[in-house]
Amino acid sequence: MKQLKNFFTLSLLLLASFAVAQSKVAHIEVQKLISEMPEVIAAQKEIAELEKTYSTDLENSVKEYQTKAQTYAADAENQTEIINQKRRTELEGIQQSLEQFRQQAAQDLQKKQVEMMRPLYEKARTAIEKVASAQGFDYILDSSAGGSVIMAKGKDLMADVKKELGF
């Protein structure tokens, strides 16, 4: 009985080691890798400078608007209703322009970030796949929070499982 138990345990261990030997799995924290890439650091610096430029331009425009609004408010009693109405319309137009500028700046920053970062993400992914292939790994898992499978060369069981389930 003891020999049978030992045989069974040995068989399970061999089976488990055989299964592990079939697929080599590795992991990498992709977000950390990307955040430490010199090209990414340079791109982030460039994006931050562009953001600062937009922010400065917006602040200056808001200050001009506030100055004009205060001037118009102080002088409103000395002007006719027609002139005051024109000034209100002008100020509303400036407010709309400021909001459009704010939205356009946000869109431009987002577009620039995607434009600059996409090739760097691809570069990192290509490097990961190259190293993984060179070292014989079948699966590479992203160990970043919310990570996923980066590379999968093993057998995909989807078709077999669908067949088993009858669809």
Structural overview:
The chain has one domain (25-165). It is 77% helix and 7% strand. α3 runs antiparallel to α4. The protein is built from 5 helices and 3 strands; from the N terminus they run αβαααββα. Strands 1-2-3 form a 3-stranded mixed sheet, with helices on one face. With 167 residues, the chain is mainly alpha-helical. It has helices at 2-22, 30-36, 38-75, 81-134, 158-165; strands at residues 25-28, 139-142, 149-152. The model has no long low-confidence stretch (mean pLDDT 83).
Global morphology = elongated
Element-level helix/strand string: HEHHHEEH
Termini separation (Å)?
Answer: 44 Å
Mean pLDDT: 83
Order of neighbouring strands in the sheet with most strands: 1-2-3
Helix content: over 70%
Estimated share of beta-strand residues: 5-15%
Number of separate structural domains: 1
The value of Rg in angstroms is 31 Å
The description of the largest β-sheet is: 3 strands, mixed
How many helices in DSSP terms?
Answer: 5
Low-confidence stretches: none
The counted number of beta strands is: 3
Quick tags:
elongated; mainly alpha; 3-stranded mixed beta sheet
Layout of strands and helices, then pairs:
Blueprint: H1 2-22, E1 25-28, H2 30-36, H3 38-75, H4 81-134, E2 139-142, E3 149-152, H5 158-165
Parallel strand pairs: 1-2
Antiparallel strand pairs: 2-3
Helix pairs in contact: 3-4
Short description:
By secondary structure, the chain is mainly alpha-helical.
